[in-house]
Structures are given as structure tokens and as C-alpha cells.
Amino acid sequence: MLINHPLLGPRDSSEFIYLGDATLIDRPDPETASAQDWHDYAYLRDNPAGPHRELWFHEAGDRSWLVVTRNTVTHEITSVELARDVARSQGRSK
Amino acid sequence: MHDLIAITALGASEPQVETIGGITCTEVANLALASVAARLGGEAACRERLASLVGTVPAAGKAELTGPFSAKWVGPDQWMVGVEYEVQNDIAAHVKAALGNTASVTEQTDAWSAFDLSGQRINRVLELLCNINLSSVGAGSAARTSIHHLSCFVICRVPNANVRILGPRASATSLHSAITTAMRSVR
Amino acid sequence: MTQVNRLTGGQIDRESTLSFRFDGKNFSGHPGDTLASALLANGVRLMGRSFKYHRPRGLMSAGSEEPNALVELRSGARREPNTRTTTAELFDGLTARSQNRWPSLAFDVMAINDRLSRFLTAGFYYKTFMWPAAFWECVYEPIIRRAAGLGSLSMQADPDIYDKGFQHCDLLVIGAGPAGLTATLTAAHAGKQVILADEDFRMGGRLNSGRFTIDDMTGADWVTKVVAELATLPNVRLMPRTTVIGAFDHGIYGALERVSDHIAEPAPGKPRQILWRITAAKTILCAGATERPIAFENNDRPGIMLASALRSYANRWAVTPAKKVSIFTNNDDGHRTAQDLHRLGIKIAAVIDTRPDAPGSTDYEVLAGAEVANTTGRLGLTFVEVRQSDGSMRTLECGALGVSGGWNPNVHLTCHQRGRPLWNETLSAFLPGEDLPPGMHVAGAADGQFSTHGALKSGQQAARRALGLRGRPPAVPEAEDAPVTQTPFWYVAGCERAWLDQQNDVTVKDVKLSHQEGFRSVEHLKRYSTLGMATDQGKTSNLGGLAIMAELAGKPIPEVGTTIYRPPYTPVPIGALAGRSRGKNFKPVRLTPSHHWAKERGAVFVEVGNWLRAQWFPINGETHWRQSVDREVRQTRASVGVCDCTTLGKIDVQGTEAADFLNKVYCNGFAKLAVGKTRYGLMLREDGIAMDDGTAARLAEDHFVVTTTTANAAKVYQHLEFVHQCLFPDLDVQLISTTEAWAQYAVAGPNSRRLLKKIVDPAFDISNDAFPFMACGNITICNGLRARLFRISFSGELAYEIAVPSRYGDALMRRLMVEGEEFDVVPYGTEALGVMRIEKGHAAGNELNGTTTALNLGMGRMVSKKKDSIGSKLSERPGLNEAEALMAVGVQPKNAEDKITAGGHLVSADGPLDAAHDQGYVTSAAHSPTLGKMIGLAFLRNGGSRHGEVMRLASPVTDLTVEVEITSAHFVDPEGERLRA
Predict the structure, then answer these.
(1) φ, ψ for residue A14 (rounded to 5)?
(2) C721 touches chain A (CB under 8 A)
(3) Residue in A2, A12, A27 to test binding to C, most C beta-carbons within 10 Å
(4) How far is C726 from chain A (nearest CA, A)?
(5) Minimal Cα–Cα distance from B40 to chain C, Å?
């Protein structure tokens, strides 16, 4: 597979390490989250046959975490974003 | 002055040079390196100061190789600065002094081994080593990629004629073996 | 032996002669020959025995689709079984052996299977060898393995080397026939980077095998001209002998280049083959078409082959299997073969055409509306029995029969991304479907363009379409453009032992039987009958099988569908898939800075991850590793020892919020750590399980150096980047690995300070007051070398870790040995390191095993509740905090002579010894020279309050049951007085 890195262009997937569902960015707020929220965050994943947002790490490249939207049926990749930008856009800060 | 004797990444007192089929692989032992990562909010200031140190601040996938201090892009707002070891053996302190609190600077000199590959049509060797699109590689390209399972930089000075490969120092022997094996293969 | 069947002409170099051996006999051929063509030239028709029935077999084809003529090529370690004679290029000194026969090809005792065929039909193993079960392994399987099969391996390591490589292009053209060549020309003239790959050693595809003209020259001459032009263009890469084996995601193709297969041995250092990964923006598949056979009774005799193969052998290689041949066809192309052969002086016994309206000929007899009913000839064809249109039988004498059932486009690569081919009624064949791999276009015969003109034109058009070229295209050269229709004719009615899949010995009858027994999906048919499951993957047999299936089911062929096409297109040697990654080059090694010195000392090394670490340093007189390890431990605890611990991961953490960041990733607090101090830290996974541990040293307000375990260095770095980039993107923190930049040595033992004082420059005070336990700082040594010093201890002794730039690591180790002589300094390896950390009760990988929590490790109180950190919330789950939770303890044998084994389980001294009463397990064990017996670290239910209890340690795997006493995990210096000394 080729992953179209937002800064470096198409790079071979062998340069990357796959982590999984990009919902891992949505870590519960430790001040307010319930035990159920933490359970869901740690253990529950959707397994769609179709577009899936997932985290890839450019291990043999620029060490960026990326959010890759990949169709799990066709492997078509429709968007690749820097995870840091995604995290910020989802309100994560410090 | 201390009296400890350095060894090269390949474990000898002198750098190794090998010529096979018109292509030469030269171990580079006189390269001092420091990584630069801009502090949050200090990105613009860091670029400005870095520019006065190295010339032009390289964009993603590029290297600046003109002055005594070179730089290559290694990640978003991150660069690797290099200089000849004899010129500045405590490069991290030097670069930190230049950049101040605009960046974090880390000594990287001995984290890497470096090999210069030069000769006619060296792309034949590179295509056995790494998956980069060599036809799009111009002077001043700096790609980080895998060579023999090792995370390496391939920095181009003259396309198809002169590149520098940087790989993890502890695996210098394996990297050197992969390079020279490929050289023999295309001889 | 002379080449009795050699004709005139052909694309072979008659100027030189090559000699070769087949089954011990000497033959000769010419450059340009394949082993198949050279054998035919020498009058050899019989080349192998079939898989199951051991029937005599010869060539069926002239290309990579060959199912029959497989041999063991070369000898000794280079022997390669199941090599197709049709693709093996002849070289001087080639040796080959036929396979699956004993004692000889002409007389094979296993041919008895052919007589037993009625018992060996489809699914025979499932039916015959059902009972008794025990017989399968010891009786049936060995017999079947001996009787059925292909060539045998040399059982020696392959002496050749294989490379892998990577290429990128704007356009990949697969196949260098007429379509591939015009596609390449079009793209090349447009300035694109083009790769043209063809599996043959001579480009041109069918143009080399026919007598068609292009413009005013022969097809073969036109090929030579075009290839010569392409070779001069810098943007074109010609790759003959290169099979594109698979279409993978996103325009990535696998291609196998046979660099040295056409010579006896690769040149020194040169690979035999290269497995390329080609990344292509666009691709044009011009893989041509494969002629399909017609099944009839006894259609597998040597001499019966595809008509197109007869034509290729005659035109390209100037050979014929016999002086008198017949053609059996259902289409016009069969007549072309007859004409070509006739023109070369081969006698045509007759052309047998199934069509009543078959075209006639003035040169030879055409039997219209006729079919082949049977054949005879034990080791090669002698007679063909023809049922004529009026029903009468006629026998034709001939040594070869060319069979043409029409052509199947080679759509394989269009289907590698789950695409499905579409049935075309006009051609009665599957054509590429709509759902091609992204970026792929198809041209030429692979797209059903069967005329030469059609192929040339479609190649040009496909290239223009793929690359988005505009403007007026140049004229396509003139060539024949005869319309092609194909009417299906799969098998001769009434035949039974008519072979569909000659490589796996599957007959028309087997397909009928499978259907009768309920295997009605094509995928089931394939697996039950083994149709198409051999190394040729059914290139000549699949369609015939499914056509019969469709007929039996009363469905049209497209409704029955095809089995799924999967890579590789043709077989790929395992060696090519491995590439250089074999033996000691399987993966890169990492050498520590003291490696060369340790090697000189005669150290024994152990692989830890990719690192080679000194395991122990034997000295004269030591015959057992325990002697070395015990000595290293004793000497370190008595005076001072030095160990290379460079391999521990080191991550530089900087930034104004570096401390806040560490507070997030470590479960214990780091915000208040003073500059110049080091702290032990435990990282949890978000689910509350311990992930890794190490130390963080604060070198400045905004600068920490974090260490990780050797094994987890890369994973921890990745995790830290995840926490930073994905969870807390606005923390001002910057991370980079510095593992290899520093050579780091543990200097441990009561005399470690005295040793270090000899090399640390006097400006730096390392006395206990100035540099207490857990201190750290930048120093200089040996009169000015930059270094870092950490007062941390894994051994439990007064200890330091000293780091210098890696290039000086070798020199520093040698210096420490010289300066330490007066203290009897000892280098110690990973075994002594392990013994001392077990004696001290420090957790390592065995304890941080992915199932244990901070609580289990005895560090439950370390998890700060005052702050949020990764894993802190889920570590509070009730399930991880029950009263009976596992807790780290020590175990010692009651009887000092007894063994302790890691992996053994703890049960009460008098209770039942079974899994239901399991109370814990031993994670690490070692012989402690300090205590003079074996000790272990264990996790025990509620272990914290059970010190002193006697239990049983049981390890059924090592056949061990001993009484042990539960103790504190800290066997040595539990109060930590030594390390603060």
C-alpha cells in the first residue's frame, strides 16, 4: 500500500507501523469520565467493512502519527492527516 | 585534552573505503550532528535563527548542503544540523547557543554512521536498497526510509552520482554490508 | 545425437552449438533454444510422467502455462525441481532429469496407477483413506507421497543469492507483444518513465511465433527494430526475463527477474533472481492470451500439444515434434498453424475441424465437422482416430497433434484485487471486467483484441488513455486484422479419460463425478478434484472444467463463474521471496560500543532484540558458564564490575513542559524531581497493565533523559510520540531517541566510586555527599571528555552508569579495565546482570510480562492519585485490585540443593497439585552465588503477607516438584544500605 503523507507525498506502507482505530485520540476527560467511558475507550472498537479512520506511525520516516482513512474492503485511502492536527481540531490540547 | 582514542562506526581507527565496479562507498567519520526541534510557539523564531546558521531552512524532504553547517528536514519543525567534526566537536552546545530557547537541541553525532556512495549510475545500487522514487530525487533531497530493516536517511548531492546514507551507528556493520553487497550485485 | 527434428529458419543462433544432458543422455542445441525446443529438435517427445497416474507426458505448450514437461534442472545443491522445460533457456552444460518416475522415464513401475484409475478418481483420498485413523500418518501418507508428486528437492542449502529491489515509474507495461510494444513506444515518446517487463527472454510475444507481417517486414524483424529503438531511450527500462507476478494495492506490482537463470552459475556476487517491487502510477496489462485445449479420450499422449505451441516451435525455434502432424481445431487459428507448418515442409495428415463449415485448403485435407475420438501410442502419439461428420471412423497416422480450442485472454492480473472477469459471447471467453486494479488498463489479446492490428492499435490507445495524452496519434503500422469469433467446443462427447488438468491428472470424468457428489461451486470443484491446483494454476484447464460444470448444472458459464485468481502468476522460488534476509543476514545486528573489546576478551554473546550483548566473559580454567557468571557476580559484589548497558533505550525529552509530559506517561510523579536527580519510573498502558520501566534523569529544568528496557525501546518511543502528538499536542515537549549516541557502562560494586574517581576530572566531586544515590549530571573525564554520570543501581550495589560519546566507548572500557586493575575489576555480562537483579528483586521483562499491574509488582502505591497519567484510571478497576491479587515475592528452596525453575507454579504444601489450586508462578530464577542456592522471583496470591510460608513449586514441564519458602523479593541488602553507601 501507499500512504500519501501530507508532508512527504506517497510513501510505502512498510515505512509505517499500524496502531488501530483513530478513536484512541478521544481519550476520556479524567475529570468527568465514568468507568464505563474508560472501558469503552480502552476496549471497544468498531470493525467496519468500509471507510475506517486509523492511526499509523511513520516509524522509518518523519515520526509523525497520521490519521489515515482507509476502506477496509478495497484498501482505498481517501484521506491522510497529521494526527496532531486532528487531535487539536478535536479539542485536545494539554 | 583527553587521551581516549575514538573508533569509527565500523570499529576501526580509520574510515573504510571500498570501490566495486566503479562505485565507491566511503565511511564518513568526521560528521558532527545535532537534532533541532522547535519549541511550541517558537517555530518562527527557530527558523529565523536556524537560517542564519545554515543558510536556507530546508522544507519537508529536503536538505541544505551549501554552507559549513548543513541541515536536513527530519520531521515537522525538526531538523538535523551537521558540520565537520573537526570544526565543531561539541555541536549540540554550539547549535543550542545559536538557537537559544527557540528549540530543543540534542547531541546526535554518535547516534549515526554515514556512508558516501559515489560513482556512475549509483541508482542501480540504491534501487536494491531502498524504496524511494529515484527519478524524483534531485540534489538536496533528503528521504528517510528503510534500508535492510534499518531506518536511514538518503541525502542526495548529485542525482545518480553522489549520495550520503545515514544509518543507526550500532548497525553500521550491517548497513555497510548491505550497501557493499548491492554494489557487488550490480557490478 | 543430431538434431533430427530441426527445420530451417527460426530465431536461434546456428553459429554456435550448446551441449546439454537430459536423463543422462547428451544432446545439442543452439542459443535461443529453450530446453523444450532443444529436446524436440533431438526427437525427444516423452519428457515426464503425470502426477497421479504416472502417464507418459510430453510438451503441451511453448510457454509458462506448461503443465506437463517439468524437470529437475541442474544438479547438486542447485537442483531445482518442477522447472518448466518451456521456459528454461538452454545453456552450455545444462543438465536435467525427468521426475516422478522409477526406474526410468520409459519404464515406470508406478504406471500401474493408470490401471487402477477407477479407484483413484476425484476425492479418492477422502474416500479411500478414511479408516483406521492411525493408518494415515504411518501407512497411507508415505505411500501417497512416494507415488504421487513432482520433482524432489536437493536437500541442500541453495548456494545462490537473490536480491530484492524497488522501482518506480509513470507506466508499467506488462508483456512485450504487439500491444505492449506500441504502448511502450507511445509512452516513451511522450517522455514518460516506462518499464516494459516480459517473461520471455526475447521480447515480441506471439510476433515471434507467427508469420504475420507488420508494415513491410516480418513480425520478428519489427520487434527487433522497435526493441532496439526503445533500448536507446533513457526513460525506458526494458526488462526481459521478468514476470510480473501480482498486482497489489495502490499500483504496486511484484516482478521476478531471472537475472542468471540462463547461465550455468551466476557470476560471483550476482544474484540469480531479483524480486522487484514496482510502484507504477499507471499500468497497461498486455499479457496476451493462452490457447485452450479440447478434451478428448487419451488427449495427453506425448506429441499432442496446443496448436499454437506447434506453430511457435516451428516458426521461432525451427523444430517440430514429428514430420507428420494433424491439427484438431474449432476455429480459424488452427488453420493458420497448419499453413505455417505446411510452408515449413511438415506434412499435414489432416486438419480436423469441428465446424461443418470449416474453410477448405488446397495444400492438405480438411475434415469438416469431424472430431478426435481417441488416440494411440504408448510413449508417444502414433495414431489419431477421427470420427468424421458422417459418423464414420478414420485413423490418421501422425507423430504430433496440434489442438486449438480458441484463446483465453490472460486476465489474471486484472483479478488480483478481487476483480471479476466478464464473459464475452463473441469470443466465448472471459475478458477483463470493470473493476480493474486502480490505474490498470488492458490492451491486446489480454483485452480480446486477437488480430495483430487490433493489438497494435489497442496498445497505443491504452497508453494514450492511461497517460491522458492528447493530439493526433501517429499511424499504427499495417498488419492483418482478421475478425475473430470463437464458438465453444470444450470436449468431445462421450469421452471420459480425457484430461482437462494434465498436471494434476483431472479428467472430464472427475469433473462429472464431483458434480454428481454435490461439489457444485467452482471453488468446491477445484478443491475436491484438485483441478487447477497444481503449479500451473490451471492456465490451460480451468475454463474447460468450469464449462463442463456449467453444462452439468444447466447454467451459462458466467453464472458459474471462475475461481479467484491469486498471485503469483507463475511460481516464485522461496529464495527470491527471502532475498538477502537469510542466515546471518536475516536481520541487521546492533553492536555495542564495547563489542570489539568484548570479542577480544573472548566474551560469549547473546542476541537481545537485534543487539549482540556479552553474556559472560570466560577466563582460563573455566569450563562451565556458571563458573564465569558466579565469579562475575562475586567479584562485582566484593569490589567492582563493569557492564555495557548501552542497549537500554535512551530518549531525550526536552521542552518547557517536559516534566508535565513525564507526569502523563509515568504513573508516579515527576514534576517535583530536582535538576541533577534521577527517579525510577513505571509506565502503564491505558488499560492499567505495566508497560515498561526505567529511569528519568533531569539534566536541566527543561531536559530529561529517559531510559527504557532494551526490548521496548522502539515501542516506548512510539508510545511517547503517540501521547504527545495524539493526546496532548499542545504540550511544549520534544522527543528524540539518543540510544546509540552514548556508550553507557554500569560501574557497580563497593569500589565503583574509587575506580571512577581515577577517571572523573577533579572539577567534579562524586563523593557520597556531593553526588548521592540517584544523582546525575554532566561531567568530564580523562582530562576533558564530555560525559554523563548517573548514580543508579540495578545490581543493588553502590553503582553508577557513565556515558560518553559512542566513538569513545571502546577506549573508555579499556581505560576502566586498566585503572580498575588495582581493585580487581571484572567485566560482567547479561547473565551476571540478571543474577544480581534477581538477588536484588528488581523487575525485568519476565515480570513486566504484559499481564502484571503496578500492584502485582509491589509498586501499587507508586501510582499517583493526585494526577492523571496514562493507565492510572483503569488501574483502579476492582478486578485489578482484589485482596487475593498476585504480589511479587521471592522463593527459595527449603533444601538448598533443589532447583527453582521459571514457569513453575506455586501450590500449597499439602493441598492438591492441580491447576484449580494454582496460587502463583515463578517468573525468574537463578543460582545466587551470594546465597549459595537457587532463588526465584514469583507472583503469588496475596503474596505480600505470606513471607515465611512453605509451599510447593511444581513444574511438570521440567518434572520438578520441590518445597520452597516464600520470602521477600529482595534477597540482597533489602534496606538498600549498599547502594546509598
Answers:
(1) -65, -15
(2) yes
(3) A27
(4) 5
(5) 5
Q: What does the pLDDT read at residue C135?
A: 67
Instruction: Give domain B31-109's CATH number out of 1.10.10.10, 3.40.50.450, 3.30.70.1520, 3.40.920.10.
Output: 3.30.70.1520
pLDDT, tens digit, 9 for 90 and up, residues C233-249: 999 999 999 999 999 99
Among chain A residues, CA nearest to C253? A1
Burial class (CB in 10 A: 0-12, 13-18, 19+), C225: middle
| Whether B75 and A63 lie within 8 Å, measured CB to CB | yes
Contact between C730 and A55 using a beta-carbon 8 Å cutoff: no
> Please, which residues have CB within 8 angstroms of residue C55's CB and are 6 or more apart in sequence?
C49, C111, C114, C300, C505
Domains contained in chain C, CATH given: 1-156 (3.10.20.440), 162-289+409-467 (3.50.50.60), 302-402 (3.50.50.60), 493-552 (no CATH)
Q: Across all residues in chain C, what is the average pLDDT?
A: 94
State whether C725 and A55 contact (CB < 8 Å). Answer: no
pLDDT digits (tens, 9 = 90+) for C270-284: 999 999 999 999 999
Q: What angle do CA C597, C601, C602 make, to 5 degrees?
A: 120
Asked if B61's CB is within 8 angstroms of A7's CB, the reply is yes
pLDDT at C364 over 90: yes
Cβ of B76 within 8 Å of Cβ of A82? The answer is yes
From the list B1, B135, B149, which residue is nearest C783 (CB)?
B1
Select from B89, B57, B94, B50 the least CA-distant residue to B72. B57
For residues C124 and C216, which has the higher predicted lDDT (pLDDT)? Answer: C216
Q: Is the pLDDT of residue B86 over 90?
A: no
The three grid cell numbers given for residue C51, joined into one nine-digit string: 502426477
Other chains touching C, judged by 3 or more CB pairs under 8 Å? A, B
Report CB contact under 8 Å: C741, B111: yes
B17-29+111-186 has which fold?
Gyrase A; domain 2 (3.30.1360)
**HSE-CB for B66 with a 13 A CA cutoff:** 10
DSSP-derived secondary structure for C869-937: -TTTTGGG-GGGS-TT-EEEEEEEESSTT----TT-EEEESSS--SGGG--EEEEEEEEETTTTEEEEE
Q: Which domains does chain A have, with CATH numbers?
A: 2-89 (3.30.2270.10)
Chain C contact set for A76 (CB, 8 A): 438
What is the rounded average pLDDT of the residues C611-621? 97
Please report, for chain B, the start and end positions of each structural domain, with discontinuous segments joined by +.
Answer: 17-29+111-186, 31-109
| pLDDT tens sequence for chain A (94 residues) | 999 999 999 999 999 999 999 999 999 999 999 999 999 999 999 999 999 999 999 999 999 999 999 999 999 999 999 999 999 999 999 9
pTM for the full predicted model = 0.94
Taking the C-alpha atoms of residue C936 and residue C927, their distance in angstroms, rounded to an integer, is 9
- Complex ipTM over 0.95: yes
Chains with at least 3 CB pairs less than 8 angstroms from chain B: A, C
Give percent of chain C above pLDDT 70.
Answer: 97
Distance CA C854, CA C683 (A): 9
